[in-house]
Design brief:
The protein has 477 residues and is mainly alpha-helical. 71% of the residues lie in helices and 0% in strands. InterPro entries: Ac/AlaTfrase_AlgI/DltB (IPR024194), AlgI (IPR028362), MB_O-acyltransferase (IPR051085), MBOAT_fam (IPR004299).
């Protein structure tokens, strides 16, 4: 059930109505709503998901006992086994075949067509289950009090298909107070605003960009340098506006229900270095990678060379999490190298006179421009259909002196400039959001506000009823 569909908004309206009509039954309302949301995508995968949640819940009851390590190992085996089977089986088989120079015969088996359909949200709910198991084992989190509570926590339809990744310490206390949540007009309006913001990004901006991205990457092996750069720029904004749209709609749904979900993006293309970028991009995943991979590997408490290795290893795992392909792994390694390189760069500058210059506005602007382009280069690995296409595009992009622009690429590069301008405007508005809201309410007449709302709603409804909008990119992960 796509967030950008009429069906979903009918579903959401029914859930919100029942939620406020029956305060004492809210956990049951959400439990059924979550089940319906997943069953809509396929009853079989819903039953699998529900079974995994029930098994992990049962196993987690033994995390505090004398066999806590065994329970933790069992829980992680269930979660990772489920994830690896659906997401990495074909990738592993194909790489074994390539390494050994053989081809397995799967005729008559479920692997006959070399395809396993990926259950919706499997990567996100797997990471959430892993975090829960580890936190309960470490006694950083009070275990869930009931299977009902645990199911609602893990499966909440607002976020579990594509994030943000919720932590038990942040969300379980909210569920335990859920009967006391009252309807607050301002919070409800804020939820509607986030929903409209996300829909606008998805239906207007992303749907305009997507055909060009698909067309260019569809013929990646024949692109000129100008076309390759144009494709990479456009995809950078497609994936940002698409994923931030979903995340903001998730936050908006949370506000409608009186629940707080974390923002996943904070204008990441204004970052001046890798550390800043990962504090702004897919924030909940970045925090998960830090807490459950980077720090257990030794984090920053070890020798510098090991820190660099830890950064690269953590980001390689992040890349593999995104998809079962070497291009995703290379994308992760690439960002790991950028992070390690920046750490080494800062270390070399420390104590030198030139270090003070890095705090100037000129340096900051230059660093943002440079790092934005480094990020764009990385997106080629993420989006290309294969390694050969990615390397060809990067080769074309590297030949700067040979780049020529067609009339179409010139127009599309103007679109890219406009999109970056929107990104800057978004940063400006978000940083002063409270003031803008207050000015909007006080200084703008009610009639004008009503007219603006009507126009926005009409345009978005027109897009919704067209029924041609694509799925969110991160649904495939």
């Amino acid at each position: 059930m796509l967030f950008n569909s009429v069906t979903f908004f009918i579903f959401l309206a029914a859930v919100v109505a029942l939620y406020y009509a029956f305060p004492r039954l809210r956990m049951y309302v959400l439990a059924v709503a979550n089940a319906a949301f997943y069953a809509y995508a396929g009853v079989g995968y819903f039953l699998l998901f529900a079974g995994i949640v029930a098994i992990v819940y049962a196993i987690s009851k033994g995390l505090g006992g004398s066999r806590g390590k065994l329970a933790l190992a069992g829980g992680l085996a269930v979660v990772l086994g489920n994830l690896f089977f659906f997401k990495y089986t074909i990738f592993l088989i194909e790489n074994i075949e390539r390494a050994l120079g053989i081809e397995f015969d799967f005729a008559g088996t479920f692997l006959d067509d070399r395809m396993i359909l990926l259950p919706i949200g499997i990567s996100f709910y797997s990471f959430q289950l892993i975090a829960y198991l580890v936190d309960v084992y470490r006694k950083k989190l009070e275990p869930s009090r009931s299977l009902l509570e645990f199911w609602v926590f893990i499966s909440l339809f607002a976020h579990s298909a594509a994030g943000p990744i919720l932590r038990g310490n942040d969300f379980l206390p909210q569920l335990r107070r859920i009967e006391n949540v009252s309807f607050i007009d301002r919070r409800f309006k804020l939820g509607i605003a986030f929903l409209l913001l996300g829909l606008t990004k998805k239906l207007v901006i992303v749907e305009f960009i997507a055909p060009y991205v698909n067309e260019y990457f569809g013929r990646a092996g024949t692109l000129t340098g100008g076309e390759a750069w144009t494709a990479a720029y456009l995809f950078a904004f497609q994936i940002y506006f698409d994923f931030s749209a979903y995340s903001e709609m998730a936050v908006g749904i949370g506000f409608l229900l009186g629940l707080k979900l974390d923002l996943n993006f904070k204008t990441p293309y204004l970052s001046a270095n890798p550390n800043e970028f990962w504090r702004r991009w897919h924030i909940t995943l970045s925090q998960w990678i830090r807490d459950y991979i980077f720090i257990p590997l030794g984090g920053s408490r070890v020798a510098n060379w090991r820190i660099y290795c830890n950064l690269i290893a953590a980001m390689a795992i992040s890349g593999l999490w995104h998809g079962a392909a070497w291009t995703f792994i290379l994308w992760g390694v690439y960002h790991g190298v950028l992070s390690a390189g920046h750490r080494l760069y800062r270390r070399l500058l420390k104590g030198r006179k030139v270090e003070a210059w890095t705090a100037t506005r000129v340096y900051k602007i230059g660093a943002v421009i440079v790092f934005f382009h480094l990020t764009v280069v990385g997106w080629v690995f993420f989006r290309a259909d294969g390694m050969q296409e990615a390397m060809y595009m990067l080769k074309q992009m590297a030949a700067i002196h040979h780049i020529q622009l067609t009339e179409e690429t010139k127009k599309l590069l103007l679109v890219v400039v406009a999109l970056y301008g929107l990104h800057l405007a978004e940063s400006f508005i978000v940083s002063r959001f409270g003031k803008f809201i207050q000015a909007w309410r006080i200084r703008v007449p009610f009639v004008v506000r009503g007219a603006v709302y009507t126009i926005i709603a009409t345009v978005l409804l027109a897009y919704l009823f067209k029924g041609e909008s694509s799925s969110f990119i991160y649904f495939q992960f």
